[in-house]
Every structure is written in structure tokens, then in C-alpha cells.
Amino acid sequence: MGAYDLFRLFFPYILSGISIGGQYALIAIGYSMVYSILRLINFAHGDVFMVGGLFMVFAAATFPLWVAIPLVVFLIVLLGFTIERVAYKPLRTAPRMSVMISAIGVSYLLQNLALYFTGGLNRMYPAFPWISDTISVFGVSTRRVTVITPFLVVALVFALVWLINNTKVGIAMRAAAKDFDTAQLMGIKINSVISTTFIIGSFLAAIGSILFFTNFPAVFPAAGAMPGLKAFVAAVFGGIGSIPGAVIGGLLIGIVETVIRGADITLGPTGLGLFNRSLDIAAFSDAFTFVLLVIVLVFRPTGLFGDKPTDKV
Amino acid sequence: MLRIEDLKVNYGGIEAVKGISLEVPEGEIVTLIGANGAGKSTTLRTVSGLVKPASGKIYFKDEDITGLPPYEIVSKGITLVPEGRRVFPDLTVLENLKAGAYLRKDDIKPDIEWVYSLFPRLKERSWQAAGTMSGGEQQMLAVGRALMSKPKLMMMDEPSLGLAPLIVKDIFDIIKEIVRQGVTILLIEQNANMALQTANLAYVLEVGQITMTGTGKELLVNEDVRKAYLG
Is A71 an 8 Å CB contact of chain B? Predict the structure, then answer.
């Protein structure tokens, strides 16, 4: 088997893995940024992502896409902002565990509201013209969104990193992430900084949701749980609090799980022929993510680029 | 300039400040000395808005500022150099200075140059992460950062803490220079000797109450103060 055949065999999985990984990365950044400021794992984040999918189902049924897309992004940003104000802000001085339980509560609330409004039925995600089109890349047929995603993710991440490194808001976010009291002594309004963080995180989750569900047949109330959990693992793997870490973690999980999902084909009789019957390796693709989580937590709890754990007073 | 009237503050379930009154005249260095836990830090944190008082009043230039949030206090021209310096460790020196000027909308470049002229060491380290600097350099940065808000009153919480005597002398020289440039100083110190030598007016705070007042020189020779704070 030549190099070209190997490429033909694995390329579709790697391509789709990069794309899914980019979508995980967009969600993972939201976990990471909120954690770095509030030391809170925002368990509702994956469900905000799911609600983004549902909003789009309903919005696209009523409005043309050029209205529906910005509307959904705006509503999701508003949702993220509101969750923080209603469920987390009143607990600012409460023990961290209380805030986390509040986050879990919001997660279940969103899932159950989704169940109520969808009647538990899968809702078909609308097909977008152009980005949902099937195209051929190096002889592999895929949707255009698969190719667009990595570029969009890179552009968004660069914009975000620039914002954090070069603007006043960015300095305020980094200052508040280290020390609330001293940040306040500079005149920084902590609550505005926290709201900004939720707005950015929700914005990225909304974009991620559009990209993800375009390649996914349907939206249902638990549709945010698995991607949310994987994005969380990505954030932990990269070092929670680190944006580049979240991106690398997301890409790694996306690529590896997709390659594992294709392993029965690529390694089986029709591929490399390493074994001559189906081993059902594909079924373990999700398990990989969680094995990775355990390994990271045992051997390097701070992740790839994580700070040493510091307690904030 | 700053007037505190019968201020009471509860902190961590205890009454840390039990009704103190003091005055900081414009253009002077005022010091508040006292043992650990006397309520010095709590007093400054209350003036800066980080802690809400239980009762009492705080006036700045005859305006009631009691209980205002920290960003309003900063915008009125009061800044606090916190205990332990508390520079932002991952931010560069320059970014720390920019954080200090957070509320300002005007051009801050001349003030960055001014701070660099007060502390040439900071200029050399402009692009260095603040957390990698020595304690003395971090204290200079904490002072420089506070000056970036263009304060009229600068409160300093234990600026000499953990610093070598030579550096402490540098810091106090800078404090005198800052006052010459028109900033009023309210200083709290455990290093009473240095503080009293520098201050025009001094208060002694013991378990939440002011027990003595005088000029720095008067307290420096006072028998009780010598016994309690100057060893």
C-alpha cells in the first residue's frame, strides 16, 4: 500500500476530526475563560450550546437565514449573560461548591425546558445553503462546513487572544483572573468583567453550535451533554484557564475520536488489513475522551499549559 | 482632605474597627501605626470601598464617600497600595501600569514616563512579567501602578513589609518625593520608626481604637510609643 493510499484511507477521518475538534475548541474556550475568572466549572455551558441548536431550529423556520443566524447568536449571548446574573452573581461570596451546584441546576433546567418545548422529539437542524453543500476535497466528499470550521476557529481564536493581550478589557480580565480585590482597587468593575467573559464564551458556543449541528442530523435536549463534556475534557487537558490549551485539547480529542471511529474500516479487511473481522473499535471512541481525562488528572492535573493551582481570595 | 468620623467596621465576624475618627490634611504625610490586628488594614480597605462600614462616615474633600464602590472611590482620586504589593504577576510591568490607569480616558503616556523617571528600574523591566521581579521592585511597581490613576490621596498598606532596610529607605525617599509633587499620603506601618520620622501627623491605633495622636516627632519621643512600637 503506497503513501497515497494511506492518505486516501486516513484523510477523511483526520479532516472531519479537525473540524469536530475545532467545534469542541470553541466550546472549551468558554469553560476555560469562565474558570480562570470565577474558578467555576460552568456545567450549563454544554446546554447553552444545545439551546443554540434548538433556537436555530425554531428561528430558521420563521426567519430567513441572514436574520436567523445573528438572532440566534444574540439570544445565546443574552442567555449566557442572564444565567450568570441570575444563577451565579448572587452567589459571589458563597462557597465555590454552591456556585457549582447552581451551575448543575441550570444545566438540568435548560435540558428540561428543552424537553418541554420539543416534546422530547428530535428536531431536524436546518440545512444552510452553501455551508451545508457537499464538496470534494482531495477526492474526499464532505460538507463545506468541515473545511470552513478550522479556518473560522483559527480566526476567532486569534481575535480573542489579541483582545485579551492588547485591549483594556483584556488587561482587566487578566487582572481579575488573578486577584479580585486588587483589580477593584484599579477601578475595574468585577461584575462587568465577569459578564464580558460570559458574553464571549456564549458567543463562541453559539458559533460552535451552528458549525456542529450543521454536520449533525438533529437537535435534542441532551445533545449538548456529550459535546459539552468533551469540550470540558479538552479544557482540562489543555490546562483549564488557558485558551491555546483549550484549542489544542479540542483538536486532539476531535481528531483521535474520529480516527478511532474509523478504525474498523481503516485497519480492517477493507483497509490496512491488520485484522480480518470487525473488532468494533469504533464503539470506544467516546471512551477515549474519558480515559484521557483520567490520565491527565492522575499524571498532570494542571494540563498542558495550566497554571499551578492558586486559590483566589 | 480625608475625614473619618466614628467609623465602625465588622470584618470576619468581629468588630475590627471600633469607632475611629481621624483627619488627613492635604499635602501631608499621615501615618497610622499599631500592632498586627489593630484594624489598620481594615480602615484603609474601608476607605477604598473594598469593605463596607457598619457605621460612621468617610468624607473626601467634604464629600460623603461612605460605602461607595471601589471604582467610584478611585475615580474621585483615592488609591490604595495594598499590603503585600499584590502586583498582577502574569502581567508585564507596563501592563500593570496600564491597569492602574484603567479608569482614565486621557493620554497616559506622560504618566508612564513620570513613573519610569521615579523608578528607573521599572523602565528597564518594562516587558518583564511582574511576578518575576524582586520584592523591592514589586513594591516600586505597586506604587507606580497606584500613581497611574493620578491620585490626590495615596494610601499605603505596609510598604516596607519584607523589604531590606536599604530598599525601605528608597521607598520612603520616593514617598517624600511623591508628596512634593502634590499627592497626600496616608501610610500604615509596623515599621513605626521609619513611618514616624517621615510623617507630619501620626495616629496610634490599638485594638480598633485610636489611643494617641501627635506629630511624627512627638510620638517618636513618647515613652509609651517607644515601649510598644519602637522596642
Answer: no
Asked whether residue A224 is assigned to any structural domain, the reply reads yes
- Quick: pLDDT tens for B53-106: 999 999 999 999 999 999 999 999 999 999 999 999 999 999 999 999 999 999
Q: Does residue A182 lie within any of the structural domains?
A: yes
8 A C-beta contact, residue A118 and residue A220: yes
Residue at A307 is within a domain: no
Instruction: Tell me if A190 sits within 8 A of A173, measured CB to CB.
Output: no
In this prediction, residue B24 carries a pLDDT of 95
**Domain hosting residue A66, numbered range:** 3-134+143-299
Residue B34, pLDDT > 90, answer: no
Q: pTM for the full model?
A: 0.91
Closest CA in chain B for residue A176: B88
Residues of chain B with Cβ-Cβ distance to A187 below 8 Å are: 70-71, 74-75, 102-103, 149
- Check CB contact under 8 Å for A175 and B91: yes
> What CATH code is carried by the domain that includes residue A242?
1.10.3470
Question: What domain count does chain B have?
Answer: 1
Which residues from chain B sit within 8 angstroms of residue A179, using beta carbons? 86, 88
Coil vs helix vs strand at B9: strand
Short-list A35, A84, A23, CA closest to A207: A23
Domain count, chain A: 1
Residue A281 DSSP class: G
